[in-house]
């Protein structure tokens, strides 16, 4: 059952599910597009996540009661439309697997280093949320054998391009920042670029695979030494 929760004076949080699943990012992304179409300029921003959609609206153009009234028919049938078989773009991100935590992750999971790399790179992940930092894409579903809690002590600085895991998620740090995830390797590509037409390379619903590469290829693709 959908819950509608006020989030301050100018936002409404739509709680659309209790648990994430593989189809939700695509469904929520499609719902966001429909809400933007229905509300038009009354929408300031829409922020999708794994199970929620945050609607920021202009109180000078629509009040709370009218917002609920406009959303009601949209939410009634938001799950009815069939999903496209291959929604979202598909990216193959090169990764040089030489992260600071790779050996520790292998030991904690009872696996060899090569098996950690294989398990991480064989899966296809789905982007379900963008947050924490500009362009930071949360991706699921990490192999259960690799699931670890976040580090007890976060790092003050994680290098740009670091490929990391925590719980059942994986991500690439789009810029150098603090972080508490376990570092498996480095991706040479820029995932966030303010000068690009689309600053965020990855979007909600996109599919991602990680492709192991050697150090020379990592550098040739633009990786930092």
From TrEMBL:
<keyword id="KW-0067">ATP-binding</keyword>
<dbReference type="GO" id="GO:0016787">
    <property type="term" value="F:hydrolase activity"/>
</dbReference>
<keyword id="KW-0378">Hydrolase</keyword>
<feature type="domain" description="Carboxyltransferase">
    <location>
        <begin position="2"/>
        <end position="202"/>
    </location>
</feature>
<dbReference type="GO" id="GO:0005524">
    <property type="term" value="F:ATP binding"/>
</dbReference>
<dbReference type="InterPro" id="IPR003833">
    <property type="entry name" value="CT_C_D"/>
</dbReference>
<dbReference type="Pfam" id="PF02682">
    <property type="entry name" value="CT_C_D"/>
</dbReference>
<dbReference type="InterPro" id="IPR010016">
    <property type="entry name" value="PxpB"/>
</dbReference>
<keyword id="KW-0547">Nucleotide-binding</keyword>
<dbReference type="InterPro" id="IPR029000">
    <property type="entry name" value="Cyclophilin-like_dom_sf"/>
</dbReference>
<protein>
    <submittedName>
        <fullName>Sensor histidine kinase inhibitor, KipI family</fullName>
    </submittedName>
</protein>
């Amino acid at each position: 059952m959908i819950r509608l929760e006020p989030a301050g004076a100018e936002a409404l949080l739509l709680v659309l599910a209790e648990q994430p699943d593989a189809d939700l990012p695509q469904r929520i992304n499609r719902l966001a597009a429909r809400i933007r179409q229905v509300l038009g300029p009354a929408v300031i921003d829409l922020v999708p996540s794994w199970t929620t959609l945050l609607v920021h609206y202009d109180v000078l153009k629509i009040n709370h009661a009218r917002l609920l009234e406009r959303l009601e028919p949209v939410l009634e049938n938001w799950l009815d439309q069939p999903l496209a078989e291959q929604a979202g773009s598909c990216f193959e991100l090169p990764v040089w697997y030489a992260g600071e935590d790779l050996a520790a992750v292998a030991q904690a999971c009872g696996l060899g280093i090569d098996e950690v790399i294989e398990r991480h790179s064989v899966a296809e992940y789905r982007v379900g949320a963008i947050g924490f930092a500009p362009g930071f894409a949360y991706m699921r579903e990490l192999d259960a054998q690799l699931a670890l809690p976040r580090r007890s002590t976060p790092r003050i600085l994680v290098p740009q391009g670091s490929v990391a895991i925590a719980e059942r998620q994986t991500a690439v740090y789009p810029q150098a920042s603090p972080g508490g995830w376990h570092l498996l390797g480095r991706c040479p590509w820029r995932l966030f670029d303010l000068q690009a037409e689309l600053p965020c390379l990855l979007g909600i619903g996109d599919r991602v695979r990680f492709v192991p590469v050697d150090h020379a290829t990592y550098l040739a693709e633009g990786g930092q030494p």
